[in-house]
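Give me a protein, keeping tokens residue-aligned:
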Amino acid sequence: MSAVIAITNQKGGVGKTTTACALLAGLQQMGRRVLGVDLDPQGSLGFCLGLDIDNCATVYDVMKGSRPVREVIVPSECGDILPSNILLSAAELEFNRPGREFLLKNALSELQDEYDFIIVDTPPALNVLTVNAYVVADGLVIPMAPEILSLLGVAQIRETIDTVRRCYNSRLKVLGILLNKYNQRFTLNREVLDMAGQIAEQLDTKVFEAKIRTSVSVAEAPAHGESVLTYAPSSKPAGDFRLLLDEVIRALAPPVR
């Protein structure tokens, strides 16, 4: 059975896609079978990994039932990808029939034995696509930038998580809050870390010990169609993401009784 991890924050620009790419690359380097699912109509996950997202079938075709999922999956340097593009922006209006919250779960159900991990990159919104990600996920990773507006986005996720747990997916677990673009020398970064800890308590989770430091390599990697782990494996962010990966795997493990 695949472990499904959704990368989520309704605030944009917090490093969701960078985190998804890094987890895919790190897991593949560990010899795990991985699938990345892009639920963002901007198509950033596929684009950042070098795919031609404007000229391929996408997760939109799968969710509306016009293409089987195996026909749409595309290989990349960081594992298989179920890509997205701007057509997915019609989801909120088009996917309006009963059971629309389970479209992704149903589509991925036949792949459960083919991958060890499925990483879902979500849009910067709390909409039907985000709910689909939460319904299929075992765990959530919530990236945030060390800024107040990013912190607000994290706080607003709680109601959606509670609703999904109550109505659709009781096993959903918040694995942790991840601080991206972190620099401990800045006072605001340290203050946001303290506030993130308070929100983590409300979500019954933690702030990951791994903090992703800033580096030009993080910005350069997508231009080369790579994750920072493959583009600059010796960089500080690559090392930070490897530490994060260890924490995520431990957080997914069931408690010892």
In short: The longest strand covers residues 173-182. The two ends are 22 Å apart (CA to CA). The chain is about 40% helix and 20% strand.
